[in-house]
Write a structure and sequence with these properties.
Elements: H1 29-39, E1 46-50, H2 56-63, E2 68-73, H3 76-90, E3 97-102, E4 120-123, H4 130-138, E5 152-156, H5 164-173, E6 177-183, E7 186-192
Parallel strand pairs: 1-2, 1-4, 2-3, 4-5
Antiparallel strand pairs: 5-7, 6-7
Helix pairs in contact: 2-3, 4-5
Length: 193
């Protein structure tokens, strides 16, 4: 059985997946469900989904009422799958703006538009590249995630014992407000920006 939208207008829609593609590991259903339950009402939220893969996180937000969802993915084959999944979700009547941008998620200048802002930023990079991507996007010296001012950044952490410490060390050095949350078997770092 494939991955499905868990809640909202498109609940139950089965998403196309990226079977066999290296580095693709979609957030499992029970973790996604608990994550969105903790986030609460997504009505009219502006959402950025980095390292989108299948688009599951961004499309879950759209299904739950987000008004604007931007999915960022570098791999053209993955972009095609995201496009197919957007079509499936749209057929249920999901109305928000949903857009895919083919870009490197660690280079915000290549995909962010002038004066564009988001309420929630999801980041679920391949585990082997996660810490490097986090360090690049989080910035250094006081500003945390300078490209996403005012957003809640939700970063899915690698599935390795003790991995959270490397991510948290950088946040503590600049005084960022953060929480470590576990949903299902998945750990997320929530960073208030």
């Amino acid at each position: 059985m494939g991955m499905k939208i868990i809640g909202g207008k498109a609940r139950g829609v089965e998403l196309a997946d990226l079977e066999g593609q290296r580095g693709v590991r979609p957030t499992i259903g029970r973790s996604r469900e608990a994550l969105f339950n903790a986030l609460g009402d997504m009505t009219d939220a502006r959402v950025l989904d980095l390292f989108s893969g299948t688009g599951a996180l961004g499309l879950e937000a759209a299904s739950r009422g987000a008004s604007n969802v931007v999915l960022v993915e570098l791999e053209p084959a993955r972009r095609a799958v995201i496009g197919a999944n957007i079509d499936k979700v749209r057929r249920t009547g999901v109305a928000g703006d949903i857009e895919v941008r083919l870009a490197d998620a660690t280079a915000p200048g290549t995909y962010l538009r002038q004066d564009e802002s988001f309420d929630v930023v999801f980041a679920d990079p391949p585990y082997d590249a996660s810490l490097a991507a986090f360090r690049k996007l989080a910035g250094a010296g006081g500003a945390v995630f300078p490209a996403f001012p005012g957003a809640l950044v939700v970063w899915e952490l690698p599935d390795a014992p003790g991995s959270a410490g490397d991510f948290i060390a950088g946040l503590e050095s600049c005084g960022a407000a953060w929480r470590l949350r576990r949903f299902g078997g998945t750990e997320f770092l929530w960073v208030e920006n």
